[in-house]
Amino acid sequence: MDAAKNEQLTDLWSKFLKKRDAESREQVVLSHLYLVKYIAGRLSIYFKNYYELEDLESAGIPGLISAVDHFNPEKKVKFETYATIRIRGAIYDWIRSLSWVPRSIYTEARKIEEALAQLEQRLGRVPDDFETAEYLNITVAEYHNLLEKVAHVAVISLDDPQHDTKESLDIAAADTGVDSVLNEIEAAEAKEALAEAITKLPERDQLVISLYYYEGLTLKEIGKVLGISESRVSQLHSRSLLRLRKLL
Fold first, then answer.
1. Taking all residues of the chain, what is their mean pLDDT, rounded to a whole number?
2. 127 and 94 housed in the same domain
């Protein structure tokens, strides 16, 4: 990382640590997406016969967000070191979560991803629930039930307390020297890809993602804000994550 970018990142961190506002938080997260790509890429070597790289990267993003939220510079530990633990832990948690999920559920999630992608390409816009249900040859009610059914595949917890108990043991061995090996171009592409993918979501879906991941609201609280049921928020959340994973 050159001096100018290093200075810019330092300024971003200073702003975020001082204000703890959503905008600076998002900027810090986007500036470290290269860590997720690096770690997911390393892990994909071992899981290439089971999971796709894009899935591992999607699973690692919540770990990065959690690392930004919980990082304490006073501990004199590099953020890259701390984030590596969180990101890797998030990916492993995702893999473990699939171990008790019937393969059919994961297959259904993939079908929804493909349906949303195909319809968007065909229509030139984001499809509504009626169009998606018709494409899948099911009723709208069945589609909504399906979204809730695959929610535990799409949703990854951002607050995993088990990482906190391991940090003191793992920190010393976690420094992977990522600064010396990561490609600046890949980092820029990752930031642009996520930002662009989020803007392609419907306005209400963007709001759900923002309130859940950046404001820390629960699905029930989001439902009160939007005036819809918690079940509907869960459906929108699942649909949004499935679209983002496909877009990325």
1. 77
2. no
